[in-house]
Every structure is written in C-alpha cells, then in structure tokens.
Amino acid sequence: MKRFFLGFALVSLVLAGVVSYFASADPDGLDYVTEEHGIAEHARDHPLGGGPLADYAVGGDDRLTGVAGVVGVLVVLSVAFGLFRLLRKRTPKA
C-alpha cells in the first residue's frame, strides 16, 4: 500500500510539474459553456483570486505553471496525509 501511495505521489508530481506546461491556454469546457450561455456575466472573482498560486502561475508569472502545480500537489498531499493520520482507526495495544 505504501508503494502505491508513493507511486501515486510521484505520478502526480510529474504530471503537475511537466505535463501542465502542455495544457491548453484556451478556456476549458466549463468556462466555454458559461461564456456561451451568458452565465459568466454573473460570475465574481474568487476571494483567493489574487493569491500567490492563482491562475496556475506563481505570482502571476505564467512561465512557472509547473512550479505552481508541484506546490499545489504537495499542499494537497500534505493535507490529505495529515487528515488520514488523524482519522485512521487505532487498534488497541494488548
């Protein structure tokens, strides 16, 4: 099980750090539909929209998309690992 999670983390980091540079700059399907049907006119900026990792960049620098992805993956994995450790079922010691 430990090998699975290490492999999962490694694949996630590679995808975030390398493959994210090849992602399309065009809006994704959800953005396209909201713009096409006028829903986007009612959208508001997210409260964290000005954050250091907003818009898949670091400090607004689009050249650092992979770095933003790696930092995001590390944050998510750290939070998930912490929650799993807190919630894991403890077996009583004999």
Automatic annotation (TrEMBL):
This protein's name: Cobalt/nickel transport protein
Superkingdom of origin organism: Bacteria
Gene Ontology cellular component list: plasma membrane
Tagged with keyword Ribosomal protein: no
Domain PDGLE: 2-89
Intracellular or extracellular location(s): Cell membrane
Main location: membrane
Keyword Lipid biosynthesis found: no
Transmembrane segments: 66-87
Signal peptide boundaries: 1-25
Alphabetically ordered keywords of this record: Cell membrane, Membrane, Signal, Transmembrane, Transmembrane helix
